[in-house]
UniProtKB/TrEMBL annotation:
GO cellular component assignments: cytoplasm
InterPro entries (UniProt xref): Ald_DH/histidinol_DH (IPR016161), Ald_DH_C (IPR016163), Ald_DH_CS_CYS (IPR016160), Ald_DH_CS_GLU (IPR029510), Ald_DH_N (IPR016162), Aldehyde_DH_dom (IPR015590)
Function according to Swiss-Prot or TrEMBL: Catalyzes the NAD-dependent oxidation of 2-aminomuconic semialdehyde of the kynurenine metabolic pathway in L-tryptophan degradation.
Record family assignment: Belongs to the aldehyde dehydrogenase family.
MF terms in GO: aminomuconate-semialdehyde dehydrogenase activity; retinal dehydrogenase (NAD+) activity
UniProt name for this protein: 2-aminomuconic semialdehyde dehydrogenase
Limits of the Aldehyde dehydrogenase domain: 25-485
Primary localization class, coarse: cytoplasm
Keyword set, alphabetical order: Cytoplasm, NAD, Oxidoreductase
Active-site residue list: 255
Pathway: Amino-acid degradation; L-kynurenine degradation
Gene designation per UniProt: Aldh8a1
Length: 489
């Protein structure tokens, strides 16, 4: 950036022990919709992580001894404060991530608020177990206690949404935390830190250390005083975290990538299925771990589906994320855009047909967005199941449509990837819906809908999509240590 630019740059600071602390070096952060550097993010390492872990350790005795009700009131206050500033948070998330302002306003920030409210409530309602052995004169019961300092690492696609999905249960259970958001999307976490004191969160309960995965992330993962890591991100990084944390036998929760199928039977209600499947493919630029990227359509309706699906996808407007009529914003980075485009090129080289989007339709951008990282929703047909486009997570606005004949065949093909996060099934035959849902290797199955979540229930993936689940009971179990106590009377 030029000097003129750098004067206007937003400079973030780490939040440690209740105070903003400058860092000795910084990373540039880009506005994905313009390609300009607009923000500088601390490039933290061991030293900063050490200070944050110390602050979290010091805060633990007081925070963990507060009653669930006291903690609940503080979480609710924080939710109110974020909600009060919802528009400012949404603007910041859209600018930092490239997502549309509409998505940030209606999904990201409301969900971040809800995460705090949800765990503020659920923490009041847990019960532990008790069993009796009258013949032996014994009663057994379980007791749960917070674990200590939780390390929380989150990705760039739903920045505040996913970070708060970890912070809220961790602190509701009485842990203190050191969080490291993605270096590409740190702004809303920093904005949230400004509200903690007012909400009544004591210093050191929530510490945020900004920086890269390789430096700040690994320092957190390797820190001996952080017994638990909750991570959301790619499968490759999760493997690295597992290796690095193994010498300490840490407790890990890993929410990873997906290659999610949609299975559309010939008795599906296409008037519901088509707009929902366009949304499940392209929402947030396809940068949601739950996005559909393999669409299996039963042969009898294949050509009709394809025609209507492409027509619907073409209605999605790509452009300036701050325009409320835009559906598709910018991708996170230049490198990521290149990676996503390359998948489309590979599919073409293998003989697949690109029906709309990348390389087929013109992309007209406003003058201010010419250097942004934009791509049109892209639909590819006639892709082989072995193709990298059908096997690897693309994490962009690209979806593949293929035909199938039988229920048995489609289950095998849908399960034929290394991932197992989410699937959708479209059919009006209730027996079939249950049969298929049971046989899919997938942590979540939505039938005749997508992305309808009850936070009470487990969230997470099978196979390479993760280890562990998060949700009301699951997060409570993950963020607490259980003890079985036996009393003889
Ligand atoms: P990523 O794995 O590159 O990074 C995620 C986080 O880990 C970032 O904060 C990063 O700085 C940090 N990190 C990177 N290397 C690290 C290391 N060696 N040690 C510690 N931390 C490290 O993922 P991303 O590109 O930011 O996010 C996209 C991925 O996240 C996709 O694969 C997507 O499917 C996945 N995701 C999964 C879910 C889910 O709930 N299952 C939700 C959203 C995104």
């Amino acid at each position: 950036p030029t000097m003129a630019h750098s004067q206007a740059l937003l400079v973030l600071e780490n939040f440690i022990g209740g105070k903003f602390v400058p860092c000795s070096s910084y990373i540039d952060s880009y506005n994905p919709s313009t390609g300009d550097v607009y923000c500088r993010v601390p490039d933290s390492g061991k030293e900063e992580v050490e200070a944050a872990v110390k602050a979290a350790k010091d805060a633990f005795p007081i925070w963990s001894s507060k009653s669930p009700l006291e903690r609940s009131q503080i979480l609710n206050k924080l939710a109110d404060l974020i909600e009060h500033d919802l528009e400012a948070f949404a603007q910041a998330e859209s600018k930092d991530q490239g997502k549309t302002i509409t998505f940030a306003r209606t999904v990201d920030i409301p969900r971040a608020v809800h995460n705090f409210r949800f765990f503020a409530s659920s923490i009041l309602h847990h019960v532990t177990e008790c069993t009796e052995m009258p013949a032996l004169g014994c009663v057994h019961y379980t007791s749960r206690a917070p674990v200590g300092v939780a390390g929380l690492i989150s990705p760039w696609n739903l920045p505040l949404y996913l970070l708060t999905w970890k912070i809220a249960p961790a602190i509701a259970c009485g842990n203190t935390v050191v969080a490291k958001p993605s270096e590409m999307t740190s702004v809303t976490a920093w904005m949230m830190c400004k509200l903690l004191e007012k909400a009544g969160v004591p210093p050191g309960v929530v510490n945020v250390v900004f920086g890269t995965g390789a430096k700040a992330g690994e320092a957190l993962v390797c820190h001996p005083d952080v017994p638990l890591i909750s991570f959301t991100g790619s499968t490759l990084t999760a493997q690295r975290i597992t290796e690095r944390s193994a010498p300490h036998c840490k407790r890990l929760s890993l929410e990873l990538g997906g290659k999610n199928p949609a299975i559309i039977f010939d008795d599906a209600d296409l008037s519901q299925c088509i707009p929902t499947t366009v949304r499940s493919s392209f929402a947030n630029q396809g940068e949601i771990c739950l996005c559909t990227s393999r669409i299996f359509v039963q042969r009898g309706i294949y050509s009709e589906f394809l025609k209507r699906f492409v027509a619907e996808a073409k209605k999605w407007k790509t452009g300036n994320p701050s325009d409320p009529t835009v559906n598709v914003g910018a991708l996170i980075s230049k490198e990521h855009l290149e990676k996503v485009r390359n998948y489309v090129k590979k599919a073409q080289a293998e003989g697949a047909r690109v029906l709309c989007g990348e390389g087929v339709d013109p992309l007209a951008l406003p003058p201010g967005n010419q250097k942004g990282y934009f791509m049109l929703p892209t639909v590819i047909a006639e892709v082989k199941d072995e193709s990298c486009c059908m096997q690897e997570e693309i994490f962009g606005p690209v979806t593949c449509v293929v035909a199938f004949d039988t229920e048995e065949e489609v289950i095998l093909r849908a399960n034929g990837v290394k991932y197992g996060l989410a699937a959708t099934v479209w059919s009006s035959n209730v027996g079939r819906v249950h049969r298929v849902a049971h046989r899919l290797q997938s942590g979540l199955v939505w039938t005749n809908c997508w992305l309808v979540r009850d936070l009470n229930l487990p969230f997470g993936g099978m196979k390479a999509s993760g280890i562990g689940r998060e949700g009301a009971k699951d997060s409570y179990e993950f963020f607490t240590e259980v003890k079985t106590i036996t009393i003889k009377h």
